[in-house]
Write a structure and sequence with these properties.
This protein is an alpha/beta fold. The chain has 3 domains: about 1-40; about 45-165 and about 225-260 and about 335-400, Rossmann fold (3-Layer(aba) Sandwich), CATH 3.40.50.1110; about 265-325, Alpha Horseshoe (Serine Threonine Protein Phosphatase 5, Tetratricopeptide repeat), CATH 1.25.40. About 50% of the residues lie in helices and about 10% in strands. It is built from 16 helices and 11 strands. Strands 6-5-7-9-11 form a 5-stranded parallel sheet, sandwiched between helices. Strands 1-2 form a two-stranded antiparallel sheet. The protein is globular, with a radius of gyration of 26 Å. Residues about 35-45 and about 405-410 have low confidence and may be disordered.
């Protein structure tokens, strides 16, 4: 009988071990599947971290970026530009910018850089824009590109990322931010963080310590008015001015390009601000409340303006309350904007006038076709073609119409 019961216990124990093993395997398998699925839907597979600029295009990458297939060459440039970059005799126009200049919202061949090239005989467009970039990163890219490529002209366009909330752990765009991104990009610490993130044991221990008040819980909100901006207005002005001066030293003409955010998203905010400035406080509060509850990329701007409206009516408690946001920043690309495009557009106009740079204001053209926007700031091929036509016309003017001659020729 003892042997019989021992056999039963062994069998039960064996089955229990198999069950536990099966459950562990199923859990691990589901976690790995979730990680793979996240990677497949995360555009940032196209990028690699860089100690100079934070991140850049992944050499040799082939895959989707911004909804369209892209191909990068072994040097981390768009493959459509490889031949032009190598051609020392070509008269080059550099495009320095963010995802709009890169071409998110349209296939590469229909970006406004490529449209400019098609409309400018004798010129070749080299698109050095990278999604997520600010004027801080663009300034660094341009310094090197001016030496390496000796362009005839430079088109600079930074209209969205500069005014976004910075990741608190990294702070505003700076050499320290770039170094922090590079440190977090690899090595044992990244492996350890990944293991902790997906470890069920670590998750259980963390939850238990938090319930026992031995470990603080991560705050689910932050104060919008205390959040750092990736590039604040003062540094935005400084970066644009530095790029204009660098281009001038290298004999290249500078062209600043103004774009606009999707007016269908920003209208409640801009109307609320106009009402606030007219002291129509109740109407302003109604518009700005709507913009906050819309929970879109411009809701943080609306929070700041709504707090201003509440303070104007003496309601400081509501002002403080509305400044608490749950839209936590989780990526080095930054969070939502806390400034409107009009503020940064005005700075670009000022710098263009101060430095004698050319200016292309594509705002009216974009705002005239609001349905061309594919999201909060990107637009489709039709508007890329229109913007390219504006740039081509300006380049014809600033380069004296001599688009078929070599750099420096009359």
């Amino acid at each position: 009988m003892k042997g019989f019961f021992a056999s039963i216990l062994i069998a039960i124990g064996f089955l229990a071990v198999l069950e536990i093993g099966a459950r562990l395997w199923d859990s691990v398998h589901r976690d790995l599947h979730a990680v793979r699925a996240a990677a497949e839907t995360d555009d940032r597979e196209w990028s690699v971290f860089s100690p100079e600029v934070g991140w850049t295009l992944r050499p040799g990458y082939r895959g989707d970026v911004g909804g369209y297939r892209r191909v990068f060459d072994p040097n981390g440039h768009l493959a459509v530009d490889t031949r032009q970059i190598a051609d020392r005799g070509a008269r080059k126009v550099l495009f320095i910018g963010d995802s709009n200049a890169f071409g998110v919202g349209t296939p590469t061949e229909h970006s406004f850089a490529e449209a400019t090239e098609r409309l400018s005989p004798g010129l070749v467009a080299i698109n050095l824009a990278v999604p997520g970039y600010t004027s801080f990163q663009g300034r660094r890219v341009l310094d090197r590109a001016l030496e390496d490529l000796q362009p005839a002209a430079v088109v600079v366009s930074f209209n969205f990322n500069d005014k976004k909330i910075a990741l608190a752990a990294l702070g505003p765009d700076s050499p320290e931010m770039v170094a922090g991104v590079a440190r977090s990009a690899g090595g044992p610490l990244r492996i350890l963080r990944t293991c902790v993130r997906y470890s069920a044991i670590c998750q259980m221990l963390t939850a238990g310590l938090q319930r026992a008040h031995l470990l603080s819980r991560r705050s689910e909100t932050f104060r919008v008015d205390h959040a750092p901006t990736r590039v604040d207005p003062e540094h935005y002005r400084e970066n644009l001015r530095a790029m204009a001066e660098a281009a001038k030293r290298h004999g290249a003409r500078m062209v600043f390009l103004i774009l606009r955010d999707n007016p269908l998203y920003t209208q409640p905010v801009t109307e609320g601000i106009a009402l606030l400035d007219s002291a129509r406080y109740d109407d302003a509060i109604a518009h700005l409340r709507f913009a906050v509850h819309a929970d879109n990329p411009f809701s943080e701007v609306a929070r700041i303006q709504l707090a201003r409206a509440f303070r104007a009516t003496g309601n400081t408690a509501s002002a403080d309350s509305v400044l608490a946001s749950g839209a936590l920043v989780t990526t080095v690309f930054g969070g939502r904007p806390i400034h409107l495009d009009s503020e940064y557009n005005a700075i670009m106009r000022d710098v263009a006038a101060e430095t004698g740079s050319a200016l292309v204001d594509a705002g009216p053209t974009l705002l005239a076709h609001p349905n061309d926007f594919t999201d909060y700031c990107h637009f489709n091929a039709a508007s890329h073609e229109r913007v390219g036509a504006l740039i081509a016309a300006k380049l014809h003017d600033v380069l004296g119409g001599a688009t078929g001659t070599q750099r420096g020729a009359p």
